[in-house]
Amino acid sequence: MGVIDIILLSLYIIAIITAVYILFKHRSYFHERFRKGVVSVFMLAMLFFLAAYTFKMIIVLLIRAAAVFGFATPELSTWLLHGWTIAQIGTTGGLVALAWLTWTGRYDQFVTLRRLDKKIEGDIEDADA
Prior knowledge:
Layout lengths: L2 H34 L1 E3 H29 L4 H31 L5 E3 H16 L1
């Protein structure tokens, strides 16, 4: 294991810890906003991006650790490649959403979840009748 391997593994671990910390510290905001039924689109996009980024960093940590510590197998490599692809789709989607919100300057958009719930409940009640 070389110096670069140690640096990369350390940086990946720090990235994972800080991303999980940010998600953990914002949980009260999301819990409150989901309970009230109104969530900021920008914060929701940030949550989606950060969750996908955290998953992506866990995958890259596993990829690097498998190479450094020699437990890489073809099956593990396939699973990690699929995980990396899913994580990349998530991070790209989150970045596109954040870029669009930044480009339009619409930081104050909100999603009303309760209206959606009531509409779905109303549709179900109408279908049952």
